[in-house]
């Protein structure tokens, strides 16, 4: 199975250690989503923009660990989307982004161009 990551799970980011057993497949920009700064990590919601991501092949054990990390308290839910590498799971933020900072570049690593939502 595949997963698409856009923030702290990306290479050289704070939670990238969760991806140790994953196989990097490539980069991809998803369209129809917006990226928001939630503090120490981002959230993706359906929108009008695009978001820079990395696609990985993972095993069921890794997916279970990521679910425990991302879906606790209903903060995120998994959504299956299409990528050039096949369908992949994306964690979509489930809470309001009102008052959160929109990352206009769509790239968590280039969040200097943020604007208030």
From TrEMBL:
SUPFAM superfamilies reported in the protein's UniProt record: Gamma-glutamyl cyclotransferase-like
Pfam family name, one: GGACT
CDD domains hit by this protein: GGCT_like
Gene3D superfamilies: Gamma-glutamyl cyclotransferase-like (3.10.490.10)
InterPro entries assigned: AIG2-like_dom, GGCT-like, GGCT-like_sf
All residue ranges annotated as the Gamma-glutamylcyclotransferase AIG2-like domain in the record: 3-109
Protein name from the UniProt record: Gamma-glutamylcyclotransferase
Native source organism of the sequence: Pantoea leporis
């Amino acid at each position: 199975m595949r997963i698409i990551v856009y923030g702290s799970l990306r290479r050289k980011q704070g939670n990238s250690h969760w991806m140790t057993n994953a196989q990097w497949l490539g980069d991809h920009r998803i369209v129809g989503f917006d990226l928001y700064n939630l503090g120490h990590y981002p959230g993706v919601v359906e929108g009008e923009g695009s978001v820079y991501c990395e696609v990985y092949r993972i095993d069921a054990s890794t997916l279970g660990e990521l679910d425990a990390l991302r879906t606790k308290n209903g903060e995120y839910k998994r959504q299956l989307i299409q990528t050039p590498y096949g369908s992949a799971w994306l964690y979509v933020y489930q809470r309001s982004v009102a008052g959160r900072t929109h990352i206009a570049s769509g790239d968590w690593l280039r969040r200097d161009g943020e604007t208030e939502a």
